[in-house]
Amino acid sequence: MRSKEWFYGRCVALVGENNNLQGIAWRALKLGVEGVDNSRGHMNHSIGVAQKFLEDNPNILDQINQLELDAVNLGDNAHADIQQAFINWINNKHGEFGQVGNNNFGYNFDTFKSVATPRLGGRRAGGGGADNEFHIALRLVARFMQ
Fold first, then answer.
1. How far is CA 61 from CA 40, 118, 121, 124, 129, in A?
2. Which of 39, 66, 71, 130 could serve as a FRET partner for 83 with CA atoms 20 to 30 Å apart?
3. How many secondary structure helices (H) and strands (E) does the chain include?
4. φ, ψ at 117 (rounded to 5°)
5. Is the pLDDT of residue 119 over 70?
6. Which is it for strands 96-100 and 103-108: parallel, antiparallel or unpaired?
7. pLDDT at 20 over 90
8. By C-alpha distance, which of 89, 84, 90, 70 is closest to 136?
9. How far apart are CA 140 and CA 122, in angstroms?
10. Contacts of 49 (CB under 8 A, 6+ apart)
11. Using CA atoms, how far apart are residues 41 and 67, in angstroms rounded to an integer?
12. Cβ(141)–Cβ(7) under 8 Å?
């Protein structure tokens, strides 16, 4: 488990390279660091949830890294298998997580569920909540964990 600072540092490195993920890395920085659209918390919890999901599901990590996509839209029927695996996985997750030694990265499943829509196992009604931020984090975290 890594911190959001690790994630954003990796995004800065991607933005400085010539690669197919520059745009999405820049968007992650805008959402999570600059906080455009009041999305800082949405992005930060998405980073933690994406890491934990991919740690627990290495086969999905490999599957995502084989996709030629900027973000992994779990609302897209093309990724219904990943979406269902994610919903099944997050359904029984609750409370804080991300404690590594003396470091507590402040991730929380319940906070994530409060800002994610039912398409991601959340409770948010009206508006997209954290879905877009999670799709971005999932794709980038998969790249950073490979």
1. 24, 22, 19, 26, 24
2. 39
3. 7, 2
4. -85, 170
5. yes
6. antiparallel
7. no
8. 70
9. 21
10. 90, 107, 109, 112, 134, 137
11. 27
12. yes
Q: Which helix (H) or strand (E) element contains residue 3?
A: none
Instruction: Point out which residues pair with 107 in neighbouring strands.
Output: 97
Radius of gyration of the chain (CA): 14
Backbone angles phi, psi at 122, to 5 degrees: -95, -170
CB half-sphere exposure, 9, CA atoms < 13 A:
5
Q: Higher confidence at residue 140 or residue 39?
A: 140
97 strand-pairing partners: 107
Q: For residues 9 and 23, give the distance between their C-alpha atoms in angstroms, rounded to a whole number.
A: 15
Give the number of C-alpha atoms closer than 13 A to the C-alpha of residue 132, restricted to the C-beta side: 14
The torsion angles phi and psi of 106, rounded to 5 degrees, stand at: 75, 20
This prediction's pTM? 0.91
Phi, psi of 39 (to 5 degrees): -110, 5
**Contact indicator for 66, 60 with CB cutoff of 8 Å:** no
pLDDT at 22 over 70: yes
Mean per-residue pLDDT of the chain: 90
Structure tokens at 64: 């995502």
